[in-house]
Design goal:
Porin; 11% helix; globular; 16 strands; disordered N terminus; 16-stranded antiparallel β-barrel; 5 helices; 398 residues; single chain
C-alpha cells in the first residue's frame, strides 16, 4: 500500500469521524442518520484501437489496448439535516498509470441557509473543482456525453491539476423567477501529480511540483424551462517546484484558465460549446530556458441526438492550440523544439451510446485527429501527424 493511499484514506476516515462527533439533535438520531446512508459504485472498461499513435497503452498494436479502466465507490451520510458527509474512492488505469485507489473527493458539506429562494453552504475537505460543464463528474461514464471528453478542455495529460483541491469551497444557489443562478468559489491546494512534471518536460528530474494555495470559481445560470445553460469558470492555480540541489533549481508553475460554457437543450437534442483561454507561466527557475509564458486557446462544438429512449448519437469538432501566437506550431518547429503538429490538435468525433439497462451503458466512438497536442506524454513518442482512434466501452453502476 503506497504512502499516498495511506494519507488519502486517513483524510476520508477523518471526515467520517468528524461527522460522528457532531452533536445529535434527538435521541434517535443514530437511526435517522443511518437511514440516509447511500453507497454507490461504478465500473468501466474500454478497448482502444488506433492506426498510428498510441493512446492509453499500445493501442496501435494488433490487439489494441485494454489499459483504460475506471472503478469507483462512493458513500454519503447525513448525520444532521443540514450536514452531508460524502467521499469517493477511485481506481483508474489509463495506460501505464498507477491504478492504486485514491481519494477522489471527501467533504463535509454544511448547508448554512436554505429556503424557497436561496441555498447557501460550505464544503470542507477535498472538493471537486467547478471547471466547465463536466469536470466534477468526469470519471463517471454515465455522466459523460462520450467515452473521451473534449480533450481541448478536459486534458488527460494534466488531469490531476484540474480534478480537485484540498481546502474550502463556498456555494450559493439563487432561485429566481426565470431560472437558477449558481455560484461556487474554492480555495485550496490543487493535486499536482506526476503528469504535470512529465508534460512540462521535467519527468526525469529529481524534483517535483507541489500544489500551493490556489483559487477557482464558477458562475452558472440555467433558465427556468431548462432549455439553456451558460457558465463562466476561472482559476488561479499555483504549484512550486522543489529541486534545490538539482541543475534547474526551484521554480513556480502558474496556470490561469478562463472557460466560457453554453448549452442549448430540446427534448431530443442538445448543442454544447465551450471556449477556453489558458495562460501558463513558468518562472523563478535557475535555468532561464525553463522560464516561459504562453497563452493557449481551446474550443469545441458538440451536437447530441437522443432517439428510441435508450440511444444517443454524438458529433463533435474539437480544436486545441497550445500557443495562441503560434497556432500551427511552425515557430516551435523552426526553433528545433519538436514537430509543429505536437503543438495543436483538431479532432472530429462521432459516437453512439446505448443504455441497455439503467445500470448498464455500452458506447463506441471514432476520432479522426490531426496533431498530437493533447496526447499524454507517455504515449507521445514516434508520433504521426494524422491518426485515427476507435474506442469501445462497457460501464456498470449500482
Amino acid at each position: 500500500m503506497s504512502y499516498r493511499w495511506r494519507i488519502e484514506r486517513l483524510i476520508a476516515w477523518s471526515l467520517f469521524t468528524l461527522a460522528g462527533c457532531l452533536p445529535w439533535p434527538v435521541a434517535n438520531a443514530d437511526a435517522d442518520a443511518m437511514d440516509t446512508l447511500q453507497v454507490h459504485g461504478f465500473l468501466s472498461q474500454a478497448w482502444l484501437v488506433s492506426d498510428d499513435n498510441d493512446f492509453f497503452g499500445p493501442s496501435s498494436e494488433n490487439d489494441g489496448s485494454f489499459q483504460y479502466t475506471e472503478i469507483g465507490l462512493n458513500v454519503s451520510l447525513r448525520p444532521l439535516r443540514d450536514v452531508l458527509v460524502s467521499a469517493q474512492v477511485l481506481s483508474r488505469r489509463a495506460g501505464d498509470d498507477d491504478a492504486s485507489p485514491r481519494l477522489d473527493h471527501g467533504i463535509v458539506d454544511y448547508q448554512a441557509f436554505s429556503n424557497a429562494r436561496r441555498r447557501l453552504g460550505i464544503q470542507l475537505g477535498r472538493f471537486k473543482n467547478p471547471f466547465g460543464f463536466y469536470n466534477q463528474t468526469r470519471d463517471v461514464a454515465f455522466t459523460r456525453p462520450s467515452i473521451l471528453l473534449p480533450q481541448s478542455i478536459y486534458f488527460e495529460r494534466t488531469r490531476s491539476l484540474a480534478l480537485a483541491a484540498d481546502g474550502v469551497s463556498v456555494y450559493d444557489e439563487e432561485y429566481l423567477a426565470d431560472g437558477t443562478l449558481r455560484l461556487q468559489i474554492g480555495i485550496g491546494d490543487p493535486q499536482a501529480g506526476d503528469d504535470l512534471d512529465e508534460t512540462l518536460g521535467l519527468g526525469e528530474q529529481a524534483g517535483s511540483f507541489d500544489g500551493r494555495t490556489s483559487y477557482i470559481g464558477q458562475i452558472l445560470y440555467e433558465d427556468g424551462e431548462g432549455h439553456w445553460t451558460a457558465a463562466l469558470s476561472a482559476a488561479d492555480v499555483t504549484a512550486r517546484y522543489q529541486d534545490s540541489a538539482g541543475p534547474i533549481g526551484d521554480g513556480r508553475f502558474h496556470f490561469q484558465p478562463w472557460i466560457l460554457s453554453w448549452q442549448y437543450n430540446q427534448e431530443h437534442w442538445s448543442l454544447t460549446t465551450e471556449f477556453a483561454l489558458r495562460r501558463i507561466a513558468l518562472d523563478d527557475f535557475t535555468n532561464p530556458r525553463l522560464n516561459d509564458v504562453s497563452l493557449g486557446q481551446s474550443w469545441y462544438v458538440q451536437y447530441t441526438r437522443r432517439f428510441a429512449d435508450e440511444w444517443q448519437w454524438l458529433l463533435r469538432y474539437d480544436s486545441l492550440a497550445n500557443d495562441r501566437n503560434d497556432r500551427d506550431g511552425s515557430q516551435y518547429e523552426a526553433d528545433g523544439l519538436g514537430p509543429a503538429y505536437s503543438r495543436y490538435a483538431r479532432d472530429v468525433t462521432t459516437g453512439l451510446q446505448w443504455r441497455i439497462h439503467p445500470r448498464v451503458l455500452l458506447a463506441a466512438e471514432w476520432h479522426n485527429i490531426e496533431g498530437t497536442g493533447w496526447l499524454p506524454v507517455a504515449d507521445a513518442e514516434d508520433t504521426e501527424k494524422y491518426w485515427n482512434l476507435l474506442l469501445f466501452q462497457a460501464s456498470f453502476r449500482f
